[in-house]
Amino acid sequence: MPDTFDTSLPPFDRLNDEQKHTLREALDIAYYRGGDIIIEAEESCAQLYIIIKGSVEEVSADNQDVFAHYTVDDMFDVRSQLEHHSRHRYTALEDTLCYLLPREIFVRLYQSNGQFSAYFDNNLARRQQLLEDAHRQQNLAEFILTKVNDDNIQPCLIVPHDTDLRTVTEQMRNKGMDVALVELNTAISKTINATNQYGIVTRTNLLHAVMLEALPASTPVNQIATTPVISVNKGDFLFNAMLAMTRNKVKRVSVQKNNRVIGMLDLTQVLSLFSTHSHVLTLQIARAKTIEELALAASSQHRLVETLFNDGIHTLFVMDLIATINEQIIEKAFQLVVPHSMHNYCCLVVMGSEGRGEQILKTDQDNALIIQDGVDWPDCQRTMEQLTHTLIQLGYPRCPGKVMVNNPKWVKHQNEWLHTISDNARIGNEKTMMELAILADSHAVAGNHGLLTPVKAQLHRQLNGQELLLATFTRPALKFSVPLTLFGKLKSGKEGGNIKRGGIFPIIHGIRALALENNIADNNTFLRIKQLEQCNVLEPSTASNLSEALKLFIKLRLRQQLNHPHHGLQQHLDLNVLSRTERDLLRHSLHVVKKFKEWLGYHYQIRD
Length: 608
Prior knowledge:
The protein is an alpha+beta fold. The protein has 25 helices and 20 strands.
């Protein structure tokens, strides 16, 4: 009985103690020399293999396609345990030692434990959800240990007890507040603690007093103030503040320091702080009056992403939130740099991941400018140079391909853009198709957004249903090989697997081509996938697996970027840091990409 088998690893951590004991009792150990065929294709497989040391290659029955490599802690062949025969051949690439789990034991565990069986479900979304749930639980402790401090305390309006309702209302409006603390009668307050020295009045209280109770505007505010005011101390956990509100059925608490009120917290704010911290950043962006103030706000974006990621917030939510914040930053930069007199006569558009709403960390600039026909702007080039420089200051590096507004090629009047699209479609080579691919993701962020609408419409007219053009358009998605063969030995390549070329780009570009073919207006890849499913272009299982694969690639790449912030935007994953579960999901996801590329080649009749 192998006592050293680690049942804390997924999916065995989902077994109860009795099931773990059954597992350990049933395990055996086998040794294979390099080159030995462990499982032959189409043969019955009587056990599940779990690698102790060594590596194994999975190939097709005809030995033409390599599907995966397996290494320490990986398991194979799960499918054969349920189908009673193996579809593929498994060969030891070196001397390999494996645990053997008899099929009947595996099947018994699979059938009796829903969480265990869910791990092996072929639906990638379900497996990814299990991993995200575990990650969210792991970070719960950090999530609830945020403290009440100067960053989250709101200013507090305190008024004397005899202040009339009109004055209180005016003060609340002028200060942009919807609540005030009311000092109680001084003689009474001497006999009670600081918490009970105040009552509280809200905008709703004032409205009801005047409109429903018909109280005159001269009424002293203490007549409608409610007590007691629940309080917390600066330095308390925000989680405790939320509990205090819940227990006392109130939406606001006062914050004290040394028995003195220094501010307020409301429930909406606390929930927002728990979920994103983003409202603070967006407020800083909106209030910025100089590039320096905007740069200060933009610099905290990396910390926001890191907080969201560590708190296990869903990848799509993070992308949507950060895309909104990026748009606000770029729009504010435009407002500060471009003369106000030109705002209605030009449109700044972003492209690439920013245009698709899929950017999480700041990447290279990809932007263009559309100028209204007939508008003369002699100072345009200098202004665009300044805007590009400003965006660099804000953390958006120069685009190596010079797709930026300081490049005259990407600054044109609207009619010039329409002709450019027609000319590129007429030429129809890979270079001009890639320029159209860039424009296909364009999204207006500042100025007159309506100037982009005819440009996008022209692009769709030129490519909608044009199979020959779309075949040329799609070809780059098939150019880079899927790095499935890298994932056996973790150090099989010095730089690891290029996840952008081998995983992210084929999905994004292939889906972009299908969206143009089917005249789908959405820019976002995930929305495009959903639309393609609704149009019956993609099978539901394919759509789901492509979405989950792309989310996984983005998530793994983001984690590496956060862990190594000074290494730039690495495209290669460090496979050494991946857990067995993540390797399994990654391998599955890359296989999804491989099948999608094969489908694209067939769909567009691309034969290379």
